[in-house]
C-alpha cells in the first residue's frame, strides 16, 4: 500500500511540474506572439495604403478641406 501512495505522490509531483512548465512557456511566448501580431498589422496597414494609392492615384485626405 505504501508503494501505491509513493507512485501516486510521484505522479502528482510530475503533473505539478508539467503545469509549471506550461505556465512559464506561455509567459515567455506571449511577447513573441505579440510582436508577430504587431508586424502583421503594420504590414497590412502599408499594403492598404499602397492599394489605396494605386486605386485613387494619391492618398485621400480624411476631410474635404484642409483645416
Automatic annotation (TrEMBL):
It is a single-pass membrane protein. Keywords: Electron transport, Membrane, Mitochondrion, Mitochondrion inner membrane, Respiratory chain, Transmembrane, Transmembrane helix, Transport. It is found in: Mitochondrion inner membrane. One of its GO terms (cellular component) is respiratory chain complex I. Its main location: mitochondrion. Belongs to the complex I NDUFA13 subunit family. Complex I functions in the transfer of electrons from NADH to the respiratory chain. Accessory subunit of the mitochondrial membrane respiratory chain NADH dehydrogenase (Complex I), that is believed not to be involved in catalysis. This is NADH dehydrogenase [ubiquinone] 1 alpha subcomplex subunit 13. It comes from Uncinocarpus reesii (strain UAMH 1704).
Amino acid at each position: 500500500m505504501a508503494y501505491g501512495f509513493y507512485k501516486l505522490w510521484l505522479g502528482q509531483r510530475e503533473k505539478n511540474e508539467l503545469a509549471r512548465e506550461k505556465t512559464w512557456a506561455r509567459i515567455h511566448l506571449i511577447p513573441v506572439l505579440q510582436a508577430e501580431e504587431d508586424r502583421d498589422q503594420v504590414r497590412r496597414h502599408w499594403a492598404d495604403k499602397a492599394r489605396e494609392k494605386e486605386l485613387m492615384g494619391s492618398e485621400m485626405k480624411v476631410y474635404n478641406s484642409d483645416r
